[in-house]
Amino acid sequence: MSDKFRAILVSRDDEKNQSVDVVELGNDDLMEGNVTIKVEATTVNYKDGLAITGKSPVIRHWPMVPGIDLAGSVIHSESDEFKAGDKVLLNGFGVGETHWGGFAGHARLNSDWLIPLPKGLTSQQAMGIGTAGYTAMLCVMALERHGITPNSGPMIVTGANGGVGTVAVAILSKLGYHVIASTGRASESGFLTELGAAEIIDRAELSEAGRPLGKERWAAGVDAVGSHTLANLLAQTQYGGAIAACGLAQGFDLPTTVMPFILRGIALLGVDSVMASKELRHEAWSRISTDLDPAKLDSLTTTIGFDDIIAAATDIVDGKIRGRVIVDMT
Predict the structure, then answer these.
(1) If we measure between CA atoms, which residue out of 126, 146, 200 comes closest to residue 169?
(2) What's the CA gap between 5 and 118, in Å, rounded?
(3) How many Cβ atoms are within 10 Å of 34's Cβ, its own excluded?
(4) Phi first, then psi: what are they for 65, rounded to 5°?
(5) How does strand 199-202 pair with strand 179-183?
(6) To the nearest 5 percent, what fractions of the chain are helix, strand and coil?
(7) pLDDT in tens, 204-213
């Protein structure tokens, strides 16, 4: 097997002008690691879009092969944990930011960052879930640990047409929650209803500065937006409720007050997918295999090829992508 493969390489010159090129690389070009993988599938996440477009300082090592997710087969291993031919999966750990990632035919990674591909999933299906879906599951698990159940009351999901949002809607509806989906794309209401949303609200209701406390509208929520949206979620959460926060699509600020926390006992649960422990990763992926309807996963995914990655990266930052994007690298 030839060790030559194509990759997307993001570079920066002395004046910090960024360029994005498709290049040919070999295994000798790869960064250090003890497991080399033939990438069979990857995906385009919002963070990947930021890396390629340069609209946010995601990349911290130059040049960089983006792609924070990948799945594929082990080509060579110096780890006792994996052997050639094993199917593996990666999410996060700074891959695509500080270590070359999934937008290449091969990747060399640290075995501690990998987990076996869950049984019953192909590499492509796993990337249909990807970091966004895995993060959605982590949010659900965080809310459950806080004591939130379907009997607690309605659950709101912001950015409902995005990667985290679509998977969160699908999982929560399967678990029996009454899901309120917040979206800026009214034309997608039918799609969100098919995923399991019981109500659709316009994101404009939440995206502007609001009152410190508002009417109690939901028991809990999953937020990938941040800023005023998250502040309004907290202000309108029922007594004893919780919001799991995992993103900053609107902004990284949080213009709120202590009032929801000290007058209603609200909890803000931070969810990090990048450095989560292997134990938590295994649990999340195991839950996904049972709590995410495969038919719904198919409905919220679009498959593209390697040559379409750069365009998809621009589209996801511009809010033109619905659901999840699978990149079939085979």
Answers:
(1) 200
(2) 26
(3) 17
(4) -95, 110
(5) parallel
(6) 35, 30, 40
(7) 999 999 999 9
Identity at 326, one-letter amino acid code: I
Residues 6+ apart with CB under 8 A from 96: 47, 48, 51, 58, 64, 65, 66, 67, 68, 102, 103
| Domain span at 75 | 5-117+300-328
3-state secondary structure of 158: coil
CATH number where 85 lies: 3.90.180.10
Number of domains in the chain: 2
Whether residue 252 lies inside any domain: the answer is yes
CA within 13 Å, CB half, 321:
28
CA distance linking residue 157 with residue 222, whole number of Å = 5
Separation between Cα atoms, residue 292 and residue 164, nearest integer Å? 13
Indicate whether 260 and 187 sit together in one domain: yes
Interatomic CA distance for residues 273 and 296, integer angstroms: 22
Closest Cα partner for 115 from 98, 129, 100? 129
| Banded pLDDT at 185 (limits 50, 70, 90) | confident
Inter-CA distances, 42 with 107, 129, 161, 283, Å: 11, 10, 20, 21
Is beta strand 114-116 parallel, antiparallel or unpaired with respect to 69-77?
A: unpaired
Nearest to 221, CA basis, from 273, 163, 158:
158
Section 189-202 average pLDDT:
95
Find the helix packing angle between 163-174 and 123-145, rounded to 10°. 70
Global pTM exceeds 0.85: yes
Spatial separation of the C-alpha atoms in residues 68 and 66, rounded to whole Å: 7
Q: Is the pLDDT of residue 186 over 90?
A: no
d(CA 242, CA 245): 10
Tokens of 173: 């509806």
Query: DSSP class of residue 90?
Result: E
Cα gap 159→161, rounded to integer Å: 6
User: Looking at residues 22-37, what average pLDDT do you find?
Assistant: 97
Task: Give the whole-angstrom CA distance, residue 23 versus residue 103.
Answer: 11
DSSP 63: S
Q: What whole-number distance in Å separates Cα of residue 22 and Cα of residue 8? A: 5
